[in-house]
Amino acid sequence: MRRALPQLIPIRVANTLPGRVARRLIPGMEIDFGPLNGQSGRQALIVALLRSASVEVVFETGTYVGSSTLLFARHFSGPIHSVEANPDYLRIARRRTAGATNVTLREGDSRDALRSWAAEDGLAGKRALFYLDAHWHEDLPLAEELELIARKWEDPIVVVDDFEVPGDPVYEFDDHGPGKRLSLDYIPAGLRSLWVPLFPSLRGSQEDGCRRGCVVLVPVRQASSLTELLPALPASWPAGSQD
């Protein structure tokens, strides 16, 4: 017998419950954090990218329940491809995005999805925006995701969620232990000449929602023009860390 879909509880409701642990208190519930962690500043950044960067296709790793996917679809009419490893989350996302005809969802590992997308006619040749958010578990795929993207796409723009924002401790980020802290040092040194890292110009204290950090990796030759159009500031790679 097929399991019933988990029910979604908005983050604003979950935050009113004792200990802010709604997922444990209410079996069968999943928290809907809202699009892009419910962060207005992050949403403005992504919308600005979609409008300014001549994006032709969006790829998302880590669909979760589809809230961010729906935001992409509201502001972008081109193809959107998203992958989710958890079948229950994917079922929710399929239901919620059913009316978005430009959204294609798939189940599986993000690295396998990137290889598959790269092999599809036309997708590898398009100007792509990647939103990477498939790093919830001990198997951290981010470095391999970045290497696949760099090999298969020309001048890709990459947004990494849950990333350390230097000098702004209000923004939270993932730290999975030695070698798995999501910071500039984590980005493979061999890829750093391809991108300029940009960070939100909005301070964490001014952001709302979950206040998770992010980095935007933009192609070097487009960094100056995009920086002028985005609510983001460029940063330098750690000294002495490039090949």
Question: Any overview of this molecule?
Answer:
The protein is of the alpha/beta class. The chain has eight helices and ten strands. The chain has helices at residues 11-14, 22-25, 40-52, 67-75, 87-96, 110-119, 142-152, 223-229; strands at 7-10, 29-32, 57-61, 80-84, 103-107, 128-132, 157-161, 195-200, 214-219, 232-234. The strands form two sheets. It has an eight-stranded mixed beta sheet with strand order 5-4-3-6-7-9-8-10, with helices on both faces. Strands 1-2 form a two-stranded parallel ribbon. Helix 6 packs parallel to helix 7 (142-152). Mean pLDDT is 89; it is low at 16-23.
Number of helices: 8
Largest sheet: 8 strands, mixed
Order of helices and strands: EHHEHEHEHEHEHEEEHE
Average of the residue pLDDT scores: 89
Distance between the termini: 54 Å
Percent range for helical residues? 25-40%
Coarse shape:
globular
Helix/strand-derived category reads alpha/beta
What is the total tally of β strands? 10
Query: Numbering strands along the chain, what is their spatial order in the largest sheet?
Result: 5-4-3-6-7-9-8-10
Q: What proportion strand?
A: 15-25%
Low-confidence stretches: 16-23
Q: Round the Cα radius of gyration to an integer and report it.
A: 17 Å
